[in-house]
């Protein structure tokens, strides 16, 4: 923590104490919060809920504004083996402002429900939830209240669209990586995220990978990933828990989505999107949620947005507890970090074990073959069955591929040994 952060924190604490003695402090209201108000909210949340929150910044925007993340969960500051990390990122396009407030209300809801709502408490006892309210504070600061369309405030301060700014696995992305994007890239490579969503406005739909085509010849239609069944399930979980998103044709003017979901590319293709990057670089399953027809509606509409999205925001994240998880270890049960785990038939997407040797693989009920590999170890496959409503625990032990190597080494040494013996006898 640098000096300014330190002062800010104490400043807020003093302010809060004054607030408490002078008058009852109001709870989170339905209005748009600027950066200063957002920081007060986040510091206050971590001050009131020190046991279940961890507030950290992953870097700074072009204008030097901290990119805050509030992590929420039981014992959040320590590593709990096999507890999955999930994340939400709001306001990546600065003028798509509804998500910013929804992220704040979601934080408020989780914190207030911990200990009072059994479902939420149980979830937070077993999951680490990381919420980044805004990935584009500079863009938001330029945006105009009441503007439903348009691009003012969409980009970051250098004029780059952050959801076109990630390295693309299929096409060359010439857009230079921005500070905000760089911070997110470092973050997702450091933490092992399993499930994620990023939030937008301007439409009402849950959009899942791929956004980009893995071929120069394809220019229209869906770009299907090997985990299409899981992604559809995830997207449907959101839209069906939402009060109106899955009810076709209740979408925004001009849009026609069945059940409120779409493959990214079959809607329109983009290069450098965040969801494809999450999935292909670190195996984090991310979808993109468009949550409002109007990008920056008047605050009087915020209460109904919250009522409609509240269950969807919660239920989506509970999906992290489906499929299979476990440790990949060596023969002495030492965890193997960065081992590659894939599901046979769903290559080429590989999921890497965390720095603690853990893996998570979201799968629908059925029979699968997991394949784990690490340098210097024999590639190993195991069969698993995934049931509905319960995650399958399957550890995978890898044996050193030392036998063949050892034999090869001995084979090389053998002539030398013979030679030395011969020399001795001569
Ligand atoms: C601080 O958090 C407490 C507990 O959630 C809440 O009652 C209070 O309204 C918050 N104050 C501010 C200024 O956000
Ligand atoms: C507890 O939280 C869950 C998940 O958000 C919600 O569906 C349920 O209605 C809540 N229960 C009560 C009694 O508020
Ligand atoms: C969650 O963890 C707390 C603290 O260990 C414990 O008291 C509580 O019973 C747990 N609640 C649920 C619903 O798992
Ligand atoms: C928002 O923009 C104004 C000028 O337009 C600037 O003075 C202010 O510092 C900015 N706030 C943040 C948090 O960047
Ligand atoms: C990586 O994450 C850990 C928490 O898991 C954190 O303590 C550390 O500061 C992070 N490192 C970087 C470089 O972000
Ligand atoms: C993309 O296509 C190439 C060539 O067909 C293939 O080798 C590769 O595995 C594909 N990548 C993904 C992620 O589907
Ligand atoms: Zn957007």
UniProtKB/TrEMBL annotation:
Cofactors (names): Zn(2+)
GO biological process: peptide metabolic process; protein processing
Gene Ontology CC entries for this record: extracellular space
Active site, renumbered: 290 (proton donor/acceptor)
Residue stretches making up the Peptidase M14 domain: 31-320
Similarity remark: Belongs to the peptidase M14 family.
SMART domains tied to this protein: Zn_pept
Keywords from the UniProt entry: Carboxypeptidase, Glycoprotein, Hydrolase, Membrane, Metal-binding, Protease, Transmembrane, Transmembrane helix, Zinc
GO molecular function: metallocarboxypeptidase activity; zinc ion binding
Transmembrane segments: 6-26
InterPro entries: CarboxyPept-like_regulatory, CARBOXYPEPT_ZN_1, CARBOXYPEPT_ZN_2, Peptidase_M14, Peptidase_M14_domain
Originating organism: Potamilus streckersoni
Protein name: Peptidase M14 domain-containing protein
Top-level taxon in the UniProt lineage: Eukaryota
């Amino acid at each position: 923590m640098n000096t300014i952060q330190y002062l800010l924190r104490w400043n807020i604490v003093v302010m809060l104490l004054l607030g408490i003695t002078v008058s009852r402090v109001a709870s989170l209201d339905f209005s748009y919060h600027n950066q200063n108000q957002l920081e007060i909210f986040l510091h206050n949340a971590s001050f009131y809920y020190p046991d279940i929150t961890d507030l950290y910044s992953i870097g700074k925007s072009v204008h030097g504004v901290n990119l805050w993340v509030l992590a929420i969960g039981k014992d959040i500051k320590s590593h709990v083996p096999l507890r999955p990390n999930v994340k939400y990122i709001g306001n990546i396009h600065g003028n798509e402002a509804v998500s910013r407030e929804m992220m704040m209300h979601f934080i408020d809801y989780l914190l207030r429900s911990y200990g009072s709502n059994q479902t939420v408490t149980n979830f937070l006892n077993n999951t680490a939830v990381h919420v980044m309210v805004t990935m584009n504070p500079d863009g938001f600061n330029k945006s105009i209240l009441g503007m439903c369309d348009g691009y003012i405030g969409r980009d970051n301060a250098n004029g780059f669209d952050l959801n076109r700014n990630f390295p693309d696995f299929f096409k060359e992305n010439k857009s230079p990586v921005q500070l905000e994007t760089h911070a997110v890239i470092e973050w997702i490579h450091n933490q092992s995220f399993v499930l994620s969503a990023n939030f937008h406005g301007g439409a009402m739909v849950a959009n899942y990978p791929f956004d980009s085509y893995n071929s120069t010849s394809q220019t229209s239609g869906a770009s299907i990933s090997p985990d299409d069944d899981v992604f559809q399930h995830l997207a449907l979980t959101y839209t069906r828990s939402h009060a109106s998103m899955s009810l076709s044709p209740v979408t925004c003017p001009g849009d026609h989505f069945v059940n409120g979901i779409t493959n990214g590319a079959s809607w329109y293709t983009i290069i450098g999107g965040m969801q494809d990057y999450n999935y292909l670089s670190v195996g984090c399953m991310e979808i993109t949620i468009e949550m409002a027809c109007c990008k920056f509606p008047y605050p009087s509409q915020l209460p109904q947005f919250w009522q409609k999205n509240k269950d969807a925001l919660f239920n989506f994240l509970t999906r992290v507890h489906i499929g299979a998880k476990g440790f990949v270890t060596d023969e002495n049960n030492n965890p193997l970090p960065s081992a590659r785990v894939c599901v046979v038939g769903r290559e080429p997407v590989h999921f890497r074990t965390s720095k603690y040797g853990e893996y998570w693989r979201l799968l629908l009920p059925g029979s699968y073959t997991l394949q784990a590999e690490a340098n210097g170890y024999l590639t190993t496959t195991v069969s698993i069955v995934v049931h509905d409503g319960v995650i399958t625990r399957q550890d995978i032990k890898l044996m050193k591929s030392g036998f063949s190597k050892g034999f090869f080494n001995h084979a090389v040494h053998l002539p030398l040994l013979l030679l030395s013996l011969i020399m001795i006898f001569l």
